[in-house]
Amino acid sequence: MSELKWYVVRAVSGQERKVKSYLETEITRQNLGDFIPQVLIPSEKVYEMRNGKKRVREKSFFPGYIIISADLSNGEVLHTITSIPGIIGFLGAKEGGMTKTPVPLRQVEINRILGKVDETDKQDAKLETPFIVGESVKVMDGPFNGFTGVVEEVYEERKRLKVLVKIFGRNNPLELNYVEVEKQD
Length: 185
Description:
The chain is of the alpha+beta class and 185 residues long. It contains 3 helices and 14 strands. The protein has 2 domains: 5-127, NusG, N-terminal domain (Alpha-Beta Plaits, 2-Layer Sandwich); 136-183, SH3 type barrels (Roll). It has a 5-stranded antiparallel sheet, with no helix packed on it. Strands 2-5-1-6 form a 4-stranded antiparallel sheet, covered by helices on one side.
């Protein structure tokens, strides 16, 4: 029976995806799938408005870290992981004679991390930059497309805004979705 445990590997920040790809390629090439069944980059989907377009991107919970389920009883597994370009080493490795022994995550910690990942998979992407009362915004969608206004209220839980838009010389309150407006520079 294999001793699968979860470990945190430090990677060059910003290169987590590339490192994960290298690692998965190496696992397949060396036929180590039984010893390293899972490689994760805990992340969430966030969207941001850029030039009037909604852009979705993945944002890492822990930049510079990759979580690996591995059985390190096979000496080749440890060497394979640490020899990947972009991997700095294991987080929490203890000195033990000549080698550094990686310390696995406690089950409570991994449950919390995996629970957070599962939770964001079920949700829609969230807006990374919330709006502030008094901020000037431009309506990007709907019948008032192109109008500018000022944020009067922010309804964070519903992801909506109350915006005062001047139409024909009068201020009119509009309730708009986050995605329907863009911050003015």
